[in-house]
Specification:
The chain has helices at 66-71, 73-76; strands at 2-3, 6-7, 9-12, 23-26, 32-36, 39-45, 50-54, 62-63, 80-89, 96-101, 106-111, 127-135, 139-142. By secondary structure, it is mainly beta. The strands form four sheets. Strands 8, 9, 10, 11, 12 and 13 form a six-stranded mixed beta sheet that branches. Strands 3-6-5 form a three-stranded mixed beta sheet, with no helix packed on it. It is globular and about 45 Å long.
Length: 150
Amino acid sequence: LQDGTAGIVVRFDAAHTFNLGDELEVSISDVKLSEFNKLLQVNDVPLTNAILKSTGNTLTPRIATIAEIITNFNAWESTLVKISNVSITGGATLSGNRTLNDGSGTIPMFTNATATFSSLATPANPVTLTAIVSDYNAKQLLMRNANDIQ
């Protein structure tokens, strides 16, 4: 979840049907704040603690270079960023670990094999990429869907 310029992972205790762009009100009283493989999260939030407030909302990603993301990583964790002129290398498809390079630095990007877009071909040319700043025992970025590549 992201509110303004800050974000955090919320792990519910059951499957949910919320969509990208939904605005939620989440009560986090008496729930655990923890790290999972270095990613800060609110853990085991009862699904009944979340109320859908509105739908169809958009977030404006922070325009950044990879060097800026690395420098501001802890402050920007779990927020949306947009990187221009970034090359994606390391495999024929987006599935798995790939390396992003925009000339200012490199950072891994991970796409789970079960993601609906994981089988898309890795772009041959530099792209503009929107992604979530994340952590899994190391800095990484995560795409939300296929539209995150322009």
